């Protein structure tokens, strides 16, 4: 039976973490560049001024990562290739942790992630707001987000209103005539999630929860002041670049573009007439998003594309490499700037942007981003997690670490009123769906 059909909400739902118990959580980050499996031990922690939203300390007890195969721009293009890479990554993490993984929290970048805000109001008649009223208004907002071609990943109430007064965090016990809620809902296309689940099931594993990639990377890379005051986290991966906007402690917007660091590499391979792997090495060793006064004088040796040993490497000025990289990086940054502007959340983001993800490590990128985005920019690395090997402490591992942090914030989401008693992969007009709807309305 599909795990996605095992809950009335459509996706497997995380069980809330017990604040008094330790938990072992396994996660899987399937990216275009690499696949990472992490196993973490979550132990209860006392309230602290450092990362106050966290209920547990996270310690990595197992990690495995493999070069990705079969994933293009975040989309699964070859099931067999992805399955074998997932098996290898999980196996390495299991051996290191000394335990067997059965279910995982996984990320999703594909499926044209969409971010919408739904507003609903109910009449209180001047009475006190009770928990049943909260549930009723959340159900009303949740029902608006139902679409048969998409699955709800996250459903977060971002703020309540009483008699038109907005910005109320918890209206319980307050009096008013009309209670309203703004609900931020992140959805993805059904087939993308189905293929993701299929891949994991074929590796004899099950899906415990699904988290949108921008949400996970933001959880790992942002500090509390940024999450509270308003900030954008930009995760630059190999095939996808995602945006998440946080404010007042919650995720309020997500977006994604199917372009990333791998596109810079292919531009170099074409422009310098060299192989992809040689272009990647040139990008990492010599590449920069900023031109330098010595670039014209510095000469780089470019390996030839052919197999003939007599072919000599080409000598090119470093300035040519920089020009090719800079053109693509500026295009990506301009797209991100426009997306933030179009979202309507530009004032919320203010001057704060955090870059994370593997492609954010390119030399000169923060400076280029400051210029194009006209904002303060810093590189975000995964925070608040113990036991990370040195190689996994960089921004490339933010999404995987964010997946381990997610169970601590999963209870902020509401699952009221979304989906009937049917698998999300079935037709909502099925007999079971209609019976489920009748049961819900009658009892």
TrEMBL record:
Q: Where is this protein localized, as stated in its record?
A: Cell membrane
Keywords (A to Z) from UniProt: Cell cycle, Cell division, Cell membrane, Membrane
The SHS2 domain sits at: 25-221
Q: What InterPro entries does the entry give?
A: ATPase_NBD, Cell_div_FtsA, FtsA/MreB, SHS2_FtsA
> Would I find Cell cycle among this entry's keywords?
yes
Q: How does it sit in the membrane?
A: Peripheral membrane protein
> What Gene Ontology terms describe where this protein resides (cellular component)?
cell division site; cytoplasmic side of plasma membrane
GO BP annotations listed: FtsZ-dependent cytokinesis
CDD domains, alphabetically?
Answer: ASKHA_NBD_FtsA
Q: Give the matching SUPFAM superfamilies.
A: Actin-like ATPase domain
- Domain of life of the source: Bacteria
Question: What NCBIfam families does UniProt report for this protein, alphabetically?
Answer: ftsA
Q: How does it assemble?
A: Self-interacts. Interacts with FtsZ.
Family statement drawn from the similarity comment of this UniProt entry = Belongs to the FtsA/MreB family.
Q: What does this protein do?
A: Cell division protein that is involved in the assembly of the Z ring. May serve as a membrane anchor for the Z ring.
What protein name applies here? Cell division protein FtsA
Q: Which organism is it from?
A: Ciceribacter lividus
Q: Which classification does the entry list for the species?
A: Bacteria, Pseudomonadati, Pseudomonadota, Alphaproteobacteria, Hyphomicrobiales
Point out the gene that encodes the protein: ftsA
């Amino acid at each position: 039976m599909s795990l996605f059909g095992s809950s009335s909400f459509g996706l497997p739902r995380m069980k809330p973490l017990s604040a008094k118990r330790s938990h072992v959580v396994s996660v899987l980050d399937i990216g275009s560049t690499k696949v990472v499996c992490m196993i973490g031990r979550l132990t209860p922690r006392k309230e602290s001024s450092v990362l106050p939203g966290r209920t547990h300390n996270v310690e990595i007890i197992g990690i495995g990562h493999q070069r990705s195969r079969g994933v293009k721009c975040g989309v699964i293009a070859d099931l067999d290739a992805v399955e074998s890479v997932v098996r290898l990554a999980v196996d390495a993490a299991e051996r290191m942790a000394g335990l067997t993984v059965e279910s995982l929290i996984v990320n999703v970048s594909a499926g044209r992630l969409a971010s919408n805000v739904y507003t609903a109001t109910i009449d209180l008649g001047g009475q006190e707001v009770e928990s049943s009223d909260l549930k009723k208004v959340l159900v009303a907002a949740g029902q608006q987000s139902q679409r048969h071609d998409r699955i709800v990943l996250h459903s977060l109430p971002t703020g309540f209103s009483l008699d038109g007064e907005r910005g109320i965090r918890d209206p319980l016990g307050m009096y008013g005539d009309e209670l309203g809620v703004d609900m931020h809902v992140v959805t993805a296309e059904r087939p993308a999630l189905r293929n993701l689940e299929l891949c994991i099931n074929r590796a004899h594993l099950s899906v415990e929860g699904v988290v949108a990639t921008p949400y996970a990377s933001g959880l790992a890379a942002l500090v509390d002041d940024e999450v509270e005051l308003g900030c954008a986290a930009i995760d630059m991966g190999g095939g996808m670049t995602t945006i998440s906007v946080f404010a007042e402690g919650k995720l309020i917007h997500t977006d994604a573009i199917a372009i990333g660091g791998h596109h810079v590499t292919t531009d170099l391979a074409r422009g310098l007439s060299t192989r992809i792997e040689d272009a990647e090495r040139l990008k990492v060793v010599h590449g920069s998003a900023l031109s330098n006064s010595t670039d014209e004088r510095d000469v780089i040796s470019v390996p030839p594309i052919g197999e003939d040993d007599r072919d000599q490497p080409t000598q090119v000025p470093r300035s040519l490499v920089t020009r090719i990289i800079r053109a693509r990086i500026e295009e990506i940054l301009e797209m991100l700037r426009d997306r933030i502007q179009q979202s309507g959340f530009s004032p919320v983001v203010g001057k704060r942007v955090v870059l994370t993800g593997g492609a954010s490590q390119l030399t000169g990128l923060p400076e280029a981003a400051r210029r194009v985005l006209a904002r303060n920019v810093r590189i975000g690395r995964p925070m608040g997690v113990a036991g990370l090997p040195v190689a996994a402490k960089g921004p490339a591992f933010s999404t995987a670490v964010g997946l381990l942090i997610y169970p601590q914030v999963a209870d902020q989401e509401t699952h009221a009123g979304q989906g009937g008693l049917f698998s999300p992969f079935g037709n909502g007009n099925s007999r079971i769906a209609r019976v489920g709807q009748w049961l819900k309305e009658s009892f």
